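Please review this one:
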Amino acid sequence: MSVQGRVQHQSNQQDEGLYFYDFNVQTQDQQQEILNGLKSSPKTISAKYFYDEKGSQLFEAITSLPEYYPTRTEIQLLRQYHEQILQRAGQHCLLIEYGSGASTKIRLLLDALKPKAYVPMDISKDFLFDCAVKLRAQFPWLEIHATCLDYHQGATLPKQLPANFKKVGFFPGSSLGNFTPSESLAFLKSVRSNVGDNGAFLIGVDLVKDSSILNAAYNDEQGVTAAFNLNILNHLNRLGEGNFNCKHFSHYAYFNEQESRIEMHLTSDLDQVVYIFDEHFVFKAGETIITEYSYKFVPQDFETLAMNAGFKVNKMWSDDAEKFALFWLEAAP
């Protein structure tokens, strides 16, 4: 894995406070992962392939939709309890965000925490770079170490980070729900390893609630979530010289109450054959590809999961309707 050094602004004037690290996401074995998913029964595509540059932009649009409550609820909690978060984090920590996206929510913490450094991690290289440049302009005092990697595979922190500062992980948006239960445990163990024995983890978790609220959040009237779901096929086409036609697939999402998860699918509208990575795949009309699971949690179950990963729950903050929660986890001895 190669690491690229300091980033330069478009003016080519070097900025000593902005660093970019590329852990060669594109050289990882994406081809085999994608092919294995399409050969499985039912067919699957990993949710991480949502996030090319357009997919990242579409997701940011989703977060502003009236039906999509997680983002605004989480932002409300961050604003309401930022002083309590500061008391636990302390100033001048190393703030590490997994799946940083547009780094929107982190802005609510930066002024309060005044971290020694901020480490945004994301799989979308160009989107990550552009957001890091914008964030550096908004917070010129902030040292930023933007790191392009696939945190699903276990995150590697840059070796150039300042030493001897408390590490605080941040994982907003209930993205943990995209993992299977075993993957969730493995991810939390990876975070526990990253933050160390004196570290902590602030994580957003979507809670179990009435299915009508959940179904509406993933089937918005404007069709933005549908466009986000379908765009994954465009991303695969570029990666594997494929010929998926988005016009021949439809968005389908629903809450599976038995499994406590939203399931997002792409349904083939007709019998068709698709080529990608020089292999062909037959789709029958009505056959689906699973593109995302989004698990919803009961607080007690999440606490057990965290404990099994080496954390203890120090505090939970939730909205009055108990739609969403922020958990502050401390590294357990």
Notes: Residues 1-14 have pLDDT under 50 and may be disordered.
